[in-house]
Write a structure and sequence with these properties.
There is one protein chain. With 182 residues, this protein is of the alpha+beta class. It has a domain at 73-117. 17% of the residues lie in helices and 40% in strands. It contains three helices and twelve strands. The strands form three sheets. Strands 4, 5, 6, 7, 8, 11 and 12 form a seven-stranded antiparallel β-sheet that branches. A three-stranded antiparallel β-sheet has the order 1-2-3, with no helix packed on it. It has a two-stranded antiparallel ribbon with strand order 9-10. It is flat, with a radius of gyration of 20 Å. The protein starts with 11 loop residues before the first strand and ends with a helix.
Amino acid sequence: MLKDNSVVNTKLNYDTFTNQMLYMGADSVLMTFAEPEKVIQVSISNRNFFYVKNYFVELLTDGPVLLYSRIHNEKIAEKAGAYGGASPATNVQTVSSVSSVTGRVTKMSSVNEDVSYVKSIIFYVTINDKTRIVMSQSDFLKCFPSKKDFIKSEIEKQNTKFNSVESVKKLVDWMNTSGIKD
């Protein structure tokens, strides 16, 4: 749904490497939203995404405290060095590449690179129309200064892990059920 209340139906996918919503355009060409800030909500199956702080984030919990998440994947390439050692690749080398619809060029791995992918979860908490980015327990507690000790106790009781969507969702669901907000 767009801010002008129009609705567009198309096949969508969220690319966690480029942090962009993709859809099929004419002639089956992959496209991205030219003006994502004009998008209010994107629904993919039973999942709802909103454009918050320059990213599409998935709504996990609705209530007085809103919880969103964004999955980010990062490609880490390490170059094989002397005696089989590895270090982050810092020099330019000639390898094949693939151009994407966004104009970005992704280099294919050369034979002397070890490639790994690091997945991170970034949470967004909205209280009273104010959204904050949450990457740790400390960030989360800063969202609730007057209830900090009470929430910290519940975090320990629930053994909340801030690298787990289910764990943080369970905590925020408890907060919304208990009427806890700042």
